[in-house]
Amino acid sequence: MPGGTGAERTGRVPWHVRWGAPVCLPALVMLALGLWGVDRGGMWRDEAVTFQVARRSVPQLWQLLHGVDAVHGLYYLLMHAVLAVHPDEVVLRLPSVCAAAVTAALVGELGVRLAGPRVGLWAGLLYAVSPLAGHYAQEGRSYALVAAGATCATLLFTAGVRTGAWRAYAAVLAVTCWLHEFAVLLLLAHAATLALARTGPRVWRGWGCAAGVVTLTLAPMILVSHAQSAQLAWVRPPTWATAEGLLRGFLGPGGGVFWACLVLAVLGLAGLAAPPGRLTCARVGLPLAAVPPAALMLVSQLSPLYVDRYVLYALPGAPLLVAAGADRLARGAARRLPLPRPPVLALTGAALTALALCLQLPLMKADRDPAGRPDDLAAVARVVAREVRPGEPVLFLPAQARNAALTYPRAFAGVRDIALTEPGPESGTLYGREADAAGVRRRLAGLERVWVVADRELLAGHWSPADPAERAKTAVLARDFLPAEEVSDGTAGVRLYVRRVALSALPDLVPVPGPPRPAHR
After folding, report:
1. Tens of pLDDT, residues 429-479
2. Do 450 and 394 meet the contact criterion of CB atoms below 8 Å apart?
3. CA-to-CA distance for 45 and 33, rounded, in angstroms?
4. Strand pairing partners for 498?
5. Are 314 and 292 in contact (CB under 8 A)?
6. Distance of CA 54 to CAs 65, 375, 442, Å?
7. Given CA atoms 314, 149, 279, 186 in this order, what sign does their dihedral have?
């Protein structure tokens, strides 16, 4: 192939240079940052779903996936085996931590193959110190594993272009797509790379056959998940602000880091002008970083599907571009100024990456606080354990709020779940089956007081549920009850509601203001 890859141009590289720094060092840095603060002391709602679903039996998992979350089925099965060892939140996150470390190593190796050890070292370290990578390294969900699979597939893609061997590429990418179906957009990125590199028909045929196998393998998942698309009803169409937010996430949310990386990434685009047939960091990194997010954003203008974590696997493209730009800058300066020997120059770049890490440490530290997530179910559990006595009735509003009880069952031991008719594992649902609207009214009719564990946005009146049973809950509470006490711990939303007649007999109890009339979400 004309020109070849970076590894071919740089000749034989000693093993300790090839593996010691560019591959192992980024993996160790990512592992250390991933383990830092991994025990946050609480899970948020998505992690809690993983935790409670993965502890179900395999037949119960299979029953669940027929109705919801088929896209996460393979991940749940993997976590079923992991949590069988020891079910706690640290073990829940360890696969993501390890996957992020593997991804950092793969980014380093990808940089070595495309442009040499120095670029590989810088690219791997840039990935490792990215706050976005660190965030999902500590998330008990599939996204860090998908990023590892996608980066491995990209590495095998570069090998396929060079050698014509595509079986491993197709196998790894197919498994990755079964971890999350939107990884299939990686095929578009790789097609763009082939177009930019102007490869020959033989390469296109080999890659096309592999892409066809991946697509056919994923077809059952696409059909099932399409039938479950109502799960994404909450997603809104992306805007220009969404795209800007993703760009800042890829290059660094801090102002100084962002602008420095943006300039270097633009310099790295010079690799697009390389001779035909040569794979460069620009020809691989630019499509990887831009094509999957752009494709999903465009589709989401018609049918909203875009969430930034769904395209986390595109992140490795950004450090490849930045590292290539830094290498180009260093080479240009070397022709004009007396610069240190290459090993010293590589270490200087690594030191600048460490400086970027230091500048972003406050952001990363804040991210390790439970308040850095959308909610904290451990805080809800602490309130219930402290305030609600065994035998007292509890109402979850909406039913998804039961996630806290499923994740921290000890805190809810002995309470009466008044709306529940069939638990989640037995019913094949995430949160269990509840009574219908009439049943909810009957169950609330005989109560003088009830504790309500509610979505904090619902309590604030930012939205109202569409389900008739959920509307019945809010209507009965508004008509027959008054909020007599609200207990908070961080982001917890737990209120004691007392029947109006009973409340009037307690003159010393001052009711708290109820939520404003909610607007439909």
Report:
1. 999 999 999 999 999 998 999 999 988 777 777 777 888 999 999 899 989
2. yes
3. 23
4. 449, 482
5. yes
6. 12, 20, 34
7. negative
Determine the pLDDT at residue 9. Answer: 44
The per-residue pLDDT for range 294-338, each reduced to its tens digit, is 999 999 999 999 999 999 999 999 999 999 999 998 887 766 666
Choose among 100, 93, 94: nearest CA to 128.
Answer: 100
Q: Dihedral, CA atoms, 90, 92, 95, 97, nearest 10 degrees?
A: -40
**Local structure of residue 184 (DSSP, 8 states):** G
Q: What gap in Å lies between CA 4 and CA 90, rounded to an integer?
A: 44
* N- to C-terminal Cα separation, the chain: 56
Cα–Cα distance between 267 and 307 in angstroms, integer? Answer: 29
What contacts 340, CB < 8 A, 6 or more positions away? 348
Q: Tell me the C-alpha distance between 226 and 220, whole Å.
A: 10
Q: What separation in angstroms does the CA of 344 have from each of 33, 84, 341, 352? A: 25, 47, 5, 12
How many CA atoms lie within 13 Å of 331's alpha carbon, on the beta-carbon side? 13
| 8 A C-beta contact, residue 49 and residue 430 | yes
What is the 3-state secondary structure of 84-140? CCCCCHHHHHHHHHHHHHHHHHHHHHHHHHHHCHHHHHHHHHHHHCCHHHHHHHCCC
Helix or strand (DSSP H, E) at 62 = helix 58-65
Is residue 160 within 8 A of residue 188, CB to CB? The reply is no
450 in helix, strand or coil? strand
Give alpha helix (H) positions in 231-341.
240-251, 255-268, 281-299, 317-334
Q: Is it the case that residue 231 has pLDDT exceeding 80? A: yes
How many residues would you count in the chain?
521
> Using an 8 Å Cβ cutoff, are 148 and 103 in contact?
yes
pLDDT tens profile 36-61: 999 988 899 999 999 999 999 999 99
Amino acid at 509: L
- DSSP conformational letter for 2: -
27 within 8 A of 19, measured Cβ to Cβ: no
How many other C-beta atoms can be found within 10 angstroms of the C-beta atom of residue 84? 11
* DSSP structure class, residue 490: T
3-state secondary structure of 430: coil
Is the alpha carbon torsion for 493, 374, 306, 27 positive or negative? negative
* R_g of the chain, CA atoms, integer Å: 26
- As to burial, measured by CB atoms within 10 angstroms (0-12 exposed, 13-18 middle, 19+ buried), residue 385 is middle
Token digits of residue 171: 């196998």
